[in-house]
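Field log, afternoon session.

UNIT: design team B
ACTIVITY: writing a sequence onto a fixed backbone
BACKBONE:
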């Protein structure tokens, strides 16, 4: 008798769970890039030479998210400004870029990656940890080529660990390290993925 009651209860709970589980629905991207026309992309500025890499990953991520968006790669900022007779970015410069290259939106941004930064922490009187992290920040914005106004912007920050050391009383030290350049490349990819999140849809339960 008890076994039969248990089986009935389990079946009831299963049906109740299935009844409460709503199907997932598609949530469209917050920003539909098809409405903007042609994007003129200026190579992202990066003091460590990751500008070209981050720019290419930005293009690939946008296309993966929304398909054949027209993107015209304009090159480095200094060269683009020189081509329109401007010395710095301004509303006039944005309008000149839009007119010369026949783009509707000017996309620009910057990438900063710090050198490995050491961290030290005491977990207790008998244990301590040390690590070295690289920090990165990626910014991007869309400028309307007609007015020069910013119509979208985003920023992403992140870090990756390149070395760690654990010291505990009575135990052998535990240490590890990875290739800093490889971690920097992975950090760049992660930052691009985060800063373009407005362009991707996703499945969610209502």
């Amino acid at each position: 008798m008890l076994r039969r009651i248990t089986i009935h209860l389990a079946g009831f709970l299963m049906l109740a769970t299935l009844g409460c589980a709503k199907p997932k629905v598609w949530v469209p991207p917050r920003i539909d890039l098809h409405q903007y026309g042609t994007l003129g992309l200026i190579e992202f500025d990066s003091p460590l030479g990751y500008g070209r890499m981050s720019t290419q990953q930005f293009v690939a991520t946008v296309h993966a998210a929304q398909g054949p968006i027209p993107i015209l790669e304009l090159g480095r900022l200094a060269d683009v400004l020189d081509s329109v007779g401007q010395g710095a970015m301004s509303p006039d410069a944005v309008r000149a870029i839009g007119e010369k290259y026949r783009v509707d939106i000017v996309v620009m941004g910057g990438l900063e990656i710090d050198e490995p930064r050491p961290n030290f922490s005491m977990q207790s009187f008998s244990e301590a940890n040390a690590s070295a992290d690289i920090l990165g920040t990626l910014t991007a914005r869309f400028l309307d080529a007609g007015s020069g106004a910013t119509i979208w912007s985003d920023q992403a920050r992140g870090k990756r660990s390149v070395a760690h050391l654990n010291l505990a009383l009575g135990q052998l030290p535990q240490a590890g390290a990875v290739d800093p350049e490889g971690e920097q490349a992975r950090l760049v990819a992660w930052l691009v993925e985060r800063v373009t999140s407005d362009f991707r849809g996703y499945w969610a339960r209502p």
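LOG NOTE: The chain has a mean pLDDT of 82.
NEXT ACTIVITY: expression trials, pending approval
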